[in-house]
Specification:
Elements lengths: L3 E7 L4 E6 L3 E6 L1 H9 L6 E5 L4 E4 L4 E8 L9 E6 L3
Antiparallel strand pairs: 1-6, 2-5, 2-7, 3-4, 3-6
């Protein structure tokens, strides 16, 4: 399984912004869900197939999150960048 991942810290109202060079799956996972994702077990996430860039995701609570970008098993590569936009 090939994927990109980033670790981000979010606070209340922060938005995770992911820029892509092509359509891809963008998932926002907590630490437990990320371990399940890597192990092939069931997991819950925010996000999904992103057909346009940038993708903006809001974490449901304060904490450390993993942002995963993959092509869902299709061949090829994707380039991505990730940043947190802090709430005003």
């Amino acid at each position: 399984m090939s994927f990109l991942h980033y670790t981000v810290q979010t606070g209340p109202g922060d938005v995770v912004q992911v820029s892509l060079d092509k359509q891809a799956n963008v998932l926002l996972l907590d630490q437990c869900a990320f371990q399940n994702f890597k192990s092939g077990r069931r997991y819950q996430y925010r996000g999904g197939l992103a057909k346009q860039s940038p993708v903006c995701l809001r974490a449901p609570y304060l904490g450390t999150w993993k942002v995963v970008v993959n092509l869902g098993g299709y061949p090829g590569t994707v380039r991505a960048s990730c940043r947190v936009v802090r709430a005003a």
